[in-house]
Amino acid sequence: MAKGIKVGDEVAVTATVRRRVTEDRISVSIPSYAFPHSIIDRASKVKKGQPIELVGEVRHIDGEWVTVNLGVPVTVNMDTLRLVTSYVPPKRKALLRDKPP
Fold first, then answer.
1. Could you report the per-residue pLDDT of 15-27, keeping only the tens digit for each?
2. Cα angle for residues 8, 52, 83 (degrees, 5° grid)
3. Residue 17 forms beta bridges with which residues?
4. What's the rounded Cα separation, in Å, for the pair 51 and 56?
5. d(C-alpha 57, C-alpha 42), whole Å
């Protein structure tokens, strides 16, 4: 289970290639996502059944369900995710208040 995932983190989902739809688009099956999903894949020549890793940013967390932006929002179970990069908020360089006179 991928504990410690929070909004803004970059995560990866391992999907399975279902078939090639067109020359530059493939259909993939994402675990715990009940809808078909297709992605643009011009560079590689993957075959049916091969795993492919999809990387996106976490947009929303609701208990065990996480919404990831993979071009379109995809809601999957937290167990299917792998943390790639944790979100670090930007640091302030100057104080928000005015300097004393």
1. 999 998 988 899 9
2. 30
3. 28
4. 16
5. 22
